[in-house]
Amino acid sequence: MNEAPGGRRRVFLTGGTGFVGGHVARRLAQRGHTVRALVRDAGSAAVLRELGFELVEGSLPDDLPDGALDGCEAVVHLVGIIRERPPQTTFERIHIQGTRRMVEGSMKSGVGKFVHMSALGADPEGTTYERTKYEAEELVRRSELPHVTFRPSVIVGEGGEFTGLLLRIVRYAPVIPVIGDGAYRLQPLDVKDVAEAFVQAAEREDLTDESFDLGGPHKLTYNRVLEIVCEELGLKRRTVSVPLSLVRPLVDLASSWRLPTPITSEELTMLLSENVIPGEGTRWREAFHIEPTPLRNVIRRLTEDDGGGA
Ligand SMILES: NC(=O)c1ccc[n+]([C@@H]2O[C@H](COP(=O)([O-])OP(=O)(O)OC[C@H]3O[C@@H](n4cnc5c(N)ncnc54)[C@H](OP(=O)(O)O)[C@@H]3O)[C@@H](O)[C@H]2O)c1
């Protein structure tokens, strides 16, 4: 076991049943921390139970059991959504009210470090997702809690929705549809690097009251992302551009009627905007001593894991 430098801690984890949360959970366990996890349904949190975590049933923002955070030295707060399902599941309720509940609970229980998940592009003038992510960051910043906030670009790896979609589309679609010109850029980031940064932030006392943009080693256009996946799977695929003038009205209409679509209006807006760290973007790598994994290596790892079955 690769034990924590500052000793074992008692950590409270939210979002541990999710994609990023699963990886953070395993890294916390590897480092020997004692973890209490908030879960909505203990019956579907077998992995966390197997890791030896204590499970507390509840949901945000309304149902965080009293005293749930008592005795915890650090909180890792990952809960977030990408799609709204009103009236219960809205960006406002989950991102803002949920974070407020966690911040208040942490203050009351005397938590010493709040490690917060935001998103690259969090912005008071952005989409509702981006605005509510920004406001949640502000709640954390303005609290008296020592904190670290992370703002990642798109995260890739085992269990990731975006990664799964890329692999499926390249494997099974004879022609790959690309919205617009595909020249919009992302900075895909390995979920294992994200997990390492979160765990260090919970452990290290020298990291406090900081925000870090997180991104992978390369800023890639969406077209280049597809090329890399094709190269790694050893497949040749043609792409076809679907004009934005066609996609946007359809997605907007479907979103306003709350019909299920592969992409929402918000996601479309965010996809088309630059989701890359401004400038060099190396501050986080230096702070956490992480050499981020290239997308190509993540795809290779995933396809080797499943027998290379392209
Ligand atoms: N994935 C990315 O590329 C990416 C990029 C930037 C930022 N982020 C942020 O990273 C965080 C985690 O993302 P993810 O991709 O791991 O998402 P995910 O797989 O959908 O996981 C979300 C987690 O939040 C929990 N959750 C949702 N609503 C809840 C509620 N009302 N009360 C308590 N728990 C609730 C889910 O629990 P259940 O299992 O019960 O549903 C799950 O554990 C989010 O804040 C997201 O905005 C993600």
TrEMBL record:
Signal peptide range: none
MF (Gene Ontology): protein-containing complex binding
Stored Pfam families: Epimerase
Boundaries of every NAD-dependent epimerase/dehydratase domain copy: 11-212
PANTHER family (alphabetical): NADH DEHYDROGENASE [UBIQUINONE] 1 ALPHA SUBCOMPLEX SUBUNIT 9, MITOCHONDRIAL (PTHR12126:SF11), NADH-UBIQUINONE OXIDOREDUCTASE 39 KDA SUBUNIT-RELATED (PTHR12126)
Name of this protein: NAD(P)H-binding protein
Organism this protein belongs to: Candidatus Kutchimonas denitrificans
Phylogenetic placement of the source organism: Bacteria, Pseudomonadati, Gemmatimonadota, Gemmatimonadia, Candidatus Palauibacterales
